[in-house]
Each structure stands twice: as structure tokens, then as C-alpha cells.
Amino acid sequence: MTTATDILIDAFDRVAATLSWHLTGLSTQTLLWRPAPDANSVGWIAWHLARVQDDHVAGVGQVDQVWTAQGHATRFGLPYPTSSIGYGHSSDEVGAFAVGSAELLLAYHQAVHRQTLAVLETLDDAGYRRIVDEQWDPPVTAAVRLVSVVDDAAQHVGQIGYILGLAERRA
């Protein structure tokens, strides 16, 4: 029998595999390249994808975020508040994103992915029905939040692929 947990694990595994495929061996120059002055870079999108997943899944699992608990915020040394997930960043803030390597981004996302799988394994039917955000009407359940996160992550991985295609054509 396939469960909701099985389906979500498969979806998050696909995001992780595709992100790894895109980022492995990527130069810092390509990682930080912006195809237009106000466009997002591959690196910023990958960081944002991981930060949103980390923030939202930690909320569902009622656990600490990997970003702070495992020292990634310090390793990245970004000029943003530690709580920032990139939502609403201006073009200048996106432009301030600087990370030394794709490997750093991959290590962070891999840690987030491990925590995501651990949180998913704890959920049962009642866990999926639990309200995790009452700021919306209707209130957001854990199931809805998780589907939203994996949908957002899949879209961002697609954006990364598109930008990498542009970068190849530019070279």
C-alpha cells in the first residue's frame, strides 16, 4: 500500500536528486550569474528553495531548523537576518547573495532533505490533519503545507534548469 508519506518522500527525493544533478560541479561564476539585472541567480534560488523547505518542514515537525541548529547560517555568512528565507527579497538583496561553492549549497540542502525525511516518517493521519498555520482561511494543515513546499521546490528546480540552459547558451 502506498501512503501519503511514501508519495511525499518520493517527491522530495526527486527534488533532491535533480538539485544535486544541477549543482554538482557547477562553477561559482555560473552559480552567481544573473541572466538579467533583476533576475535571480541559480545559487540564490537553490538557497531559497532549501531555506523554505527547512523553515516550513521544521514547523510541521516542530523541530529546529537545520539552518541554525547545524551551523549552516554561520558557514554561509550571508548578509541577511538568520530568519530570512528569501521571500520578498529585493533585487539588491538577491545581488548580495555570495556563496563560495555549489558544494556548500548541496551540503545544506542534503541536511534539510535528511530532516525532511525524518519528519515525514513521524507523521500519521492525525499528524497530516494537524493545523500548522492559522493565518489562512481555511487554516493550513501539515498535509497542505508539505504539498505546497514540494510544489514550490519542484518549480524552483525547474527555474534552476532553465537558467543553466541560458548560461550554457551564453558561453
What does the model show?
This protein has 171 residues and is an all-alpha fold. It has a single domain (4-170), classed as dinb family like domain (Four Helix Bundle (Hemerythrin (Met), subunit A), Up-down Bundle), CATH 1.20.120.450. Helix content is 67%, strand content 3%. It has nine helices and two strands, in the order H-H-H-H-H-H-H-H-E-E-H. It has helices at residues 4-23, 28-32, 42-61, 66-69, 72-76, 91-95, 102-122, 125-129, 142-170, and strands spanning 131-133, 140-141. Strands 1-2 form a two-stranded antiparallel ribbon. Strand 1 and strand 2 (140-141) form a beta hairpin.
Q: What structural keywords apply?
A:
67% helix, Four Helix Bundle (Hemerythrin (Met), subunit A), 171 residues, two-stranded antiparallel sheet, mainly alpha, 2 strands
Multimeric state: single chain
Name of the CATH architecture = Up-down Bundle
- Find the count of extended strands (DSSP E, 2+ residues): 2
User: How would you characterize the largest beta sheet?
Assistant: 2 strands, antiparallel
Q: Helical segment tally? A: 9
In whole angstroms, the N-to-C terminal distance is: 48 Å
Shape: globular
Structural class: mainly alpha
The CATH topology corresponds to Four Helix Bundle (Hemerythrin (Met), subunit A)
CATH superfamily: dinb family like domain
Going across the biggest sheet, name each strand in turn. 1-2
Mean pLDDT: 97
Overall CATH class:
Mainly Alpha
Q: Give helix % range.
A: 55-70%
Low-confidence stretches: none
- Tell me what portion of residues adopts beta-strand conformation: under 5%
Number of individual domains: 1
SSE topology string: HHHHHHHHEEH
